[in-house]
Amino acid sequence: MPAYASSVPNIALIKYWGNRNDDLRLPAADSVSMTLNTPHVEVGVDHSDILTVSSFEFDGRAREMTMKHIARFQKHLELVKQYLTHIGMMDAIPHSIAYTIHSGIPPAIGLASSAAVFSCVAEALAGLLQQKGHNLTREQISVIARLGSGSASRSVFGGFSAMHAGKGNDIDSAYAEQIVPADYWPLHDIVIIPSLKEKEHGSTEGHALASTSPLFKQRVEDIMDHRQQDCIDAIRRRDFELLQKVAEEDSKNMHEVMKSSTPALHYLSEDTYKIIDEIEVYRRMKNLAVLYTMDAGPAVHLICTEEAKTEILHYAHSKESCTVFVTKTGEGSHQIDKPRL
Ligand code: PMV
Q1: Greatest C-alpha distance within the chain
Q2: Contact 83/144 with Cβ under 8 angstroms?
Q3: I need a surface site. Which of 20, 152, 178, 326 has the fewest CB within 10 A?
Q4: What residues contact residue 318 under an 8 Å CB cut-off, 6+ apart?
Q5: What is the per-residue pLDDT for 197?
Q6: Between helices 113-130 and 67-86, what is the axis angle to 10°?
Q7: Whose CA is nearest to atom 9 of ligand 1?
Q8: CA-atom Rg of the chain in angstroms
Q9: Which residue minimizes the CA distance to atom 8 of ligand 1?
Q10: What is the tens place of the pLDDT at every residue in 206-252?
Q11: The predicted structure's pLDDT at residue 306
Q12: Is 183 exposed, middle or buried (0-12, 13-18, 19+ CB in 10 A)?
């Protein structure tokens, strides 16, 4: 019987960039994110003789799956088998899987679709294992998600969640956990997307280059020494000022690492910098609780409080050549009875 799940992207406040083990996607440092309430991805999984991946847009149109995409699912399944062996669930290992993906995420809008897809895959696989009497914990589901995309481990939880990098090379030494649920601190994420071009370098390639930057070692030290904890404290205390300080520092620092790696990675565009400058002026002028953060793309995520939302929306819609996507704190991945998209 197939198993189904639904999930969403997340926006990182302390960014995951660089691994200590690329093969197992074991991160070099901790990270924190806010799970979003939209757009949704749904995944169905079933036992199969061979691995197949069928992917559809939300309007039902088939999405082309390249060899690179299929290879990623193949690699993920190999790692899942390795992990299930590691935790003594050998009898739960599927021979192979048929995946069906329905994605409501417009391509290249700067929202990490891999985080939504692999958290959803992990959740659906957990449903399949449940049919054989194996109940995985949320932490174990986050490990399965991480094996496909590091940031996906955080979308397993709603609200705000943290990934613990851990130490060593055990396959489950890094996992995510929830900091607080979605209703603890509802914040909005108004995403301004200057360009709808597909990005040139995916994050998997980028992680592998992170350690070539002379700034990388210090970045890892700063996160592990205080920045991760400051961010968690800010969330627990609902301290927007502190959240703004650490999240902006971290986003800027990640982009410095990217720009100083070999080869250099430039994800931000002139529009990105313009929006940041304008927001800095605008928020000072109007005293608005808004922070900016950018992942591996030119999109600017403006995270703000309920009080600041109307002003920020007004600003976002004034950027004529940009696409605006409105989202907020949401629930993480979960199983569903049947597909809805
Ligand atoms: O999970 P990945 O391999 O797609 O990497 C995500 C990288 C960033 O989005 C830039 C940062 C993050 O923590 O989400």
Answers
A1: 62
A2: yes
A3: 326
A4: none
A5: 67
A6: 50
A7: 295
A8: 19
A9: 295
A10: 999 999 999 999 999 999 999 999 999 999 999 999 999 999 999 99
A11: 98
A12: exposed
15 lines ligand 1 (CB under 6 A): yes
User: Which residues of the chain have a pLDDT value below 50?
Assistant: none
Residue 114 Cβ contacting ligand 1 at under 6 Å: yes
Q: Give me the DSSP letters along 254-321.
A: HHHHHHTSSS------HHHHHHHHHHHHHHHHHT--EEEE--SSSPEEEEE-HHHHHHHHHHHHT-TT
Ligand 1 and 16: CB distance under 6 A: yes
Ligand 1 proximity of 112 Cβ (cutoff 6 Å): yes
d(CA 29, CA 106): 30
Cα–Cα distance for residue pair 269/265, rounded to 1 Å: 12
Q: What is the pLDDT of residue 108?
A: 58
> What is the structure's pLDDT at 181?
98
Helix (H) or strand (E) holding 4: strand 3-7
- Contact 204 CB / ligand 1 (< 6 Å): yes
CA of 10 to the centre of ligand 1 (A): 9
CA–CA distance, 326 with 196 (Å, rounded to integer): 16
C-alpha of residue 189 to centroid of ligand 1, in Å? 17
CA dist 199 → 17, 111, 163, 225, 270 (Å): 16, 12, 25, 32, 15
Please tell me the distance from the alpha carbon of residue 11 to that of residue 236, in angstroms, as a whole number: 17
Cβ of 43 closer than 6 Å to ligand 1, yes or no, is no
Count Cβ atoms within 10 A of the Cβ of residue 88 and give its class: 0-12 exposed, 13-18 middle, 19 or more buried. exposed
Provide φ and ψ at 267, rounded to 5°: -100, -20
Residue 165 Cβ inside 6 Å of ligand 1? The answer reads no
Distance from the alpha carbon of residue 2 to the mean position of ligand 1, in angstroms? 29
State how far the Cα of 235 lies from the Cα of 243, in Å rounded to an integer: 7
Instruction: Determine the Cα–Cα distance for residues 196 and 101; give it in Å rounded to an integer.
Output: 22
pLDDT in tens, 126-145: 999 999 999 999 999 999 99
